[in-house]
Amino acid sequence: MFACWTYGIAVPSGLFVPSLLAGAAYGRICVMFVHYLDFPVGAQDGMFALIGAASMLGGMARMTISLTVIILECTGVIEWGLPIMVSLMAARWVGNSFNEGLYDIHIHLNHLPFLEFDPPYYARFLRALNVMSSPPTCVPQIAKVGEIYDVLKNCNHGGFPVIVPRSQDAAGGGQQPNLSAKRRSPRFSGIINRHHLAVLLQRKDFFVEKPEPFVRIPAGDTTLLYNDQYALSYRDMEGSYPRYPSVSDIQLDEEERGLWMDLTPYMNTTPYTVQEQTPVPRAFRLFRSLGLRHLIVLNRRNEVRGLITRKDLTPAHLKFCLEALSEAEKQRIKGYFHRDRCGSERFEDVEKKLIRINDNW
């Protein structure tokens, strides 16, 4: 109880050792009570204390195999491995029947965007178009220094989609006059991280004249200012890891704000993307299995529609998006229930939720 009260506050406390101590004391009390009743005990008293410590720690952390290995390595009693494993599994099952583990509860209290192994069951009724953050903040692959600086100053995103006008993408010709406005919309070209943009601003990787994209080669150990032939090397870009420069520490004068930046040597031209009609469970598994930070949502014309981050795939955000569906989407989901009467309780819960939403509307 005291461990739960003190966990998370700014004091030099912990959970591991207090749980072991409390569990060992509990096991020792149990074996003393057995001796008091004159029941025959075939095991040593220390085994009861060790099993009690393991069960208390397992009930708090909800871990089985890792704790078994840790306890066996610390004690060196391999012959007690089976009872320790059984006690940890029993503590985990009993604890899960009441609530989540203390670590999981603390994750939810801190509102951390933690993703479970599988998406929620109601995520199958949503698409990437429903959960993405829109409109995204994009940067052109050839941009003014002042524009990049203002984007970093006014936006806290960790990555930015890089776009290029359709007229620049055409090979060997200019912009056609009869194209529609939609077809002239900027095309997705890649993604660049925030700290890379900050490094470019700090290193003054600028151009006096508007440069041509994809023409520079990586530089060596030295970097020249306003150089139109060499790009910054990997050592230049990642040399300040993990303390990348902050945009608040970068100062630019008016002359530098009017210069040009070429992002093509530094952006990721092959990021993971999904179409706007992609089911959310597929995007969820792609995001979690690959450990992504950003997932770009595109339409059929390869235009950026939105950005999916970890917070967009949390259960709370998915529930909010489910409630924000249009009336036509809700009718589509109800039609799915009408066609598929499998009798599953989880589908009935979603149907009741949609009925409650309609009543509120």
From TrEMBL:
Gene3D superfamilies: CBS-domain, Clc chloride channel. The chain crosses the membrane at residues 15-36, 48-71. This is Chloride channel protein. Keywords: CBS domain, Chloride, Ion transport, Membrane, Repeat, Transmembrane, Transmembrane helix, Transport. Residues 267-327 form the CBS domain. GO terms for molecular function: chloride channel activity. Its main location: membrane. It comes from Peronospora belbahrii. Pfam families: CBS (PF00571), Voltage_CLC (PF00654). It is found in: Membrane. One of its GO terms (cellular component) is membrane. Belongs to the chloride channel (TC 2.A.49) family. It is a multi-pass membrane protein. InterPro entries: CBS_dom, CBS_dom_sf, Cl-channel/antiporter, Cl-channel_core, ClC.
